[in-house]
Amino acid sequence: MSHSQTTTTEHHPALAHQFDSLEQQKDASMLGMWAFLLTEIMMFGGLFAAYLIYRLRYYEAFVAGSTSIAVTLGAVNTLVLIGSSLTMALAVSAAQRGAQKVLRGFIVATMLLGLVFLGIKAVEYHEKYVEHHIPGGVFGKFGPTDIEKDLQEKDHKTPEAAAQIARQTEIFFCFYFAMTGLHAFHMLIGFGLMTWLLWLSRGNRFGPDYYTPVELGGLYWHFVDIVWIFLFPLLYLISRTQGAH
Amino acid sequence: MSTAITAVQPQVMPAKHYLNDNYGIRSWLLTKDHKRIAVLYLISITFFFFIGGLFAAMIRLELLTPAGDLFQSDTYNKLFTMHGINMIFFFLIPSVPAVLGNFVLPIMVGAKDLAFPKINLMSWYLYIGGALFSLATMVSGGVDTGWTFYTPLSSGFVRTHVILMAVGILIVGFSSIFTGLNFIVTVHRMRCPGMTWGRLPLFVWSNYAASLIMVLGTPVLAITLILLALERGFHIGIFDPALGGDPVLFQHMFWFYSHPAVYIMILPGMGVISEIITCFSRKRVFGYFFVAFSSIAIAVFGFVVWAHHMFVAGVSVYSAMVFSLLSFAVAIPSAVKVFNWTATMYKGEVSFETPMLYAIGFIGLFTIGGLTGLFLAALGTDVHIHDTYFVIAHFHYVMVGGMVMAYIGGLHFWWPKMTGRTYPEGWAKLAALITFIGFNLTFFPQFILGYLGMPRRYHSYPEEFQVLNVLSSAGASVLAVGFILPLIYLLWSMRYGEVAGPNPWKATGLEWETSSPPPTHNFEMTPVVTTEPYAYGDEEGTVVP
């Protein structure tokens, strides 16, 4: 199927009826995906903007919250996710060459790396649960948290100030969970896309003529990766450097 | 098929078209044909238009007397909330794009379909999904926060189904994102040979501009509603001042979408008007590029004016000044359109068929609606008239006098194309007249009421406001007649109307070069465009500046 060198693309089985040629179909699909990613940027952008506004308002609380989360796990996760972007790019390249088995291998590798990411994320979430850093009604109801103790002992805050700042970290953790949660949700959608690509590749249909679905899946996966590239410094790094103990 | 024969040229229905291509409920519910999806949308939004109208009728009935004697104040809060939500999210936003745009935009650019027919169908199912949530909310007691969902009222105080409704709006938002995305890609990638950007009909330009807003604005509403639902469900404190959150931030995020959203509503309507005015003036549009780019300018400016909804909510005076100035700036591209439409009619062969009556009505009423918007954009006068009936009147002059007029006008204009039959012209003119009179009677008194200080969202009012309120309620019943009449005669015309033929208006544009109703793939063969848009008068060799 992929060996065809002729330009008679009219009867290509993947050509939808509304398009005149495979090129037009690919261009349209790519533009559609980019436009969709634009909506995603606006959606995450709203969260980012709100996060930055509250970071200005409750600066000390954000520094304290940011210092308390596990930067090592976040850094490892960053590497894992960048690795999954590499396997995804290799999957696209395999699809372009028509190497179906390699394609499937790299897609499975991408999914496995994604699972590792979510596993590490689950460990982090569990940590928050143990430390009583889950926002929503019960925040601060379990006695002084580690953040409050640190503020008193290492930053030499008065008990009242430490309690107030610790109380305000709830907003930081709201955003921590909202942003990483929305990101994780997008990864789950990504798993759905990967499964769909595996299903599509059964008939060995991808090749130099037609690999658009893999390319679109790749764009989406890279986008999810890039969101994390912004989330990681926002949540873990930029405030941490300020918290000189 | 039909015995309707016109005196001059008997038109016949085409043997094969999109309506009789195949039959059965599956052929509709699983269709990927943009024309059938447009019809599905038409049926659904008509349903919600009359639901929303029912709530409006109850509001006007309550306001007939100064005492709050028909509904309790809590019930009244639910009435105006459900009126607003249903009309805005389930009627106005999808109205022109999802019905008229879905039907004619792909034909106008010479395409066989939209770029992503499956996503188009999915957009309708998302609409229906959101609509079910809205119906569930209504059946289970409604929402009483106002359509704006201001926090902390919506997040902590009211006891109604805010989350249910927010989820419904979130879902219907994705339906509009998918419509917008489809339009953008179709305009970029699906134009037929010869259909350059400079030859696109202005209807396409304005829908393109509206699509940009849908794609860029709606996700921000989505994240705002998600945060609102989280806040309400788990008390996480992002918008709750008791927990350190900022309720004004909610207003910023809400209006960042909801102000541009009014341009999602009005821009496609402006596109309809450009088509109708040129056709019934038999003249090229005056200043094509200005009209086209004013749509883009409105879309761009529309994103940087949102805080004019919050002048009295405690935003800093300097940012208020900037937002006031930018709001005034939106008046420039809007005025460009109004002046260019008027100049198009000047020395044209103007005839007054029904779509033209609605279009002329649009120009007048939109001008009033737009100019009164400047009163609200000015920092000083806004203090006096914000949160009064002046705002209600301004909004309805733009949305009903503007958008609904354009929608109904466009529906009449393309009805022969959609169904293959013409509507009864006499009844339609009568309905247009009734709508115009009823509309003005309903909403003009509200300008005066608002200026005199009657606040919005109360079910009782001082006795000296009764005369104007009775006028308004009387107008509302006239307006209802104007809206119900087309429902009747348009349905009637589907069976008994005269066969229209491919181009009953002798209009330009690709949609008039295919049969009425069009075949499933729109054209027998891919069209090639060789002329400029709106080449009216070319046959007489008239030179139009």
What does this structure look like?
The complex is a heterodimer of chains A (245) and B (545). Chain A has 245 residues and is mostly helical. Chain A is built from seven helices and no strands. In chain A, helix 6 (159-200) packs antiparallel against helix 7. Mean pLDDT of chain A is 89; it is low at 1-9. Chain B has one domain (33-537): Up-down Bundle (Cytochrome C Oxidase, Chain A). Chain B is built from 15 helices and no strands.
Give a topology summary.
The complex is a heterodimer of chains A (245) and B (545).
Chain A: H1 22-57, H2 59-68, H3 71-97, H4 100-130, H5 146-153, H6 159-200, H7 212-237
Helix pairs in contact in A: 1-2, 1-6, 1-7, 2-6, 3-4, 3-7, 4-6, 5-6, 6-7
Chain B: H1 25-29, H2 34-62, H3 73-108, H4 117-139, H5 153-157, H6 162-189, H7 202-234, H8 247-281, H9 288-302, H10 317-345, H11 354-377, H12 379-385, H13 389-419, H14 425-452, H15 466-496
Helix pairs in contact in B: 2-3, 2-4, 2-15, 3-6, 3-7, 3-8, 3-13, 4-6, 6-7, 7-8, 7-9, 8-9, 8-10, 8-11, 8-13, 9-10, 10-11, 11-13, 11-14, 13-14, 14-15
Summarize the structure.
The complex is a heterodimer of chains A (245) and B (545). By secondary structure, chain A is mainly alpha-helical.
Q: What is the C-alpha radius of gyration of chain B, as a whole number of Å?
A: 23 Å
Uncertain ranges of chain B: 1-6, 540-545
Class by SSE composition of chain A: mainly alpha
| Individual helix count of chain B | 15
Counted beta strands of chain B: 0
Q: Characterize the main sheet of chain B.
A: none
**Approximately how much helix is present in the residues of chain B?**
55-70%
For this structure, what is the CATH homologous superfamily of one domain in chain A?
Answer: Cytochrome c oxidase, subunit III, four-helix bundle
Q: Which blocks of ≥5 consecutive residues of chain A have pLDDT under 50? A: 1-9
Globular, elongated, flat, extended or rod-shaped: what is the shape of chain B?
A: globular
